[in-house]
Design a protein that fits this description.
A two-stranded antiparallel ribbon has the order 1-2. Helix 3 crosses helix 4. Helix content is 48%, strand content 15%. With 109 residues, it is α+β, with helices and mostly antiparallel strands. It has a single domain, classed as Orthogonal Bundle (Arc Repressor Mutant, subunit A), CATH 1.10.10. The model has no long low-confidence stretch (mean pLDDT 85). The two termini are 12 Å apart.
C-alpha cells in the first residue's frame, strides 16, 4: 500500500483563531499517518463513517495509533481518500447509532 499525502487543511476567511491554530498544528506527517490508518482500516473491513470513528477511538485508546483525531477529522480524511479515488461507497447502507441510514465505505479495487 502506498502512502498518499494531502496538504494541510485550508483555512476559511471566517474561521475563528482557534481553528486556524488547530489547522496549523496538524503536520503533514500526522495527516499522512491518519490517511494511512483510515485506508488500512477500510481495506480490512468496509465501514460507515460512524464505525470508522468508533474504530479509530478504540485504536487510540489501545495505543495502536499515536495520532488522536476528532470524529470530524476522521470523516474528512475518508472524504480526502474518496477524492483521491482510493475509497468509494460500496452501495451498501447500514444504520447509525441514531438509526439513520448511512453509506458504507470501502477501498476501491
Amino acid at each position: 500500500m502506498s502512502t498518499k499525502t494531502v496538504s494541510r487543511p485550508k483555512r476559511r476567511v471566517t474561521q475563528p483563531p482557534t481553528s486556524i491554530e488547530a489547522a496549523a498544528s496538524m503536520s503533514e506527517v500526522a495527516l499522512s499517518a491518519l490517511q494511512t490508518w483510515v485506508l488500512a482500516a477500510l481495506e480490512r473491513k468496509a465501514m460507515t463513517d460512524s464505525e470508522l470513528v468508533k474504530r479509530h477511538q478504540a485504536a487510540f485508546k489501545k495505543n495502536d495509533i499515536a495520532t488522536n483525531a476528532t470524529p470530524q477529522r476522521v470523516r474528512t480524511v475518508r472524504k480526502e481518500l474518496e477524492k483521491l479515488k482510493l475509497v468509494a461507497a460500496t452501495g451498501e447502507f447500514r444504520k447509525t447509532p441514531l438509526m439513520n441510514r448511512t453509506q458504507v465505505w470501502g477501498v476501491t479495487s
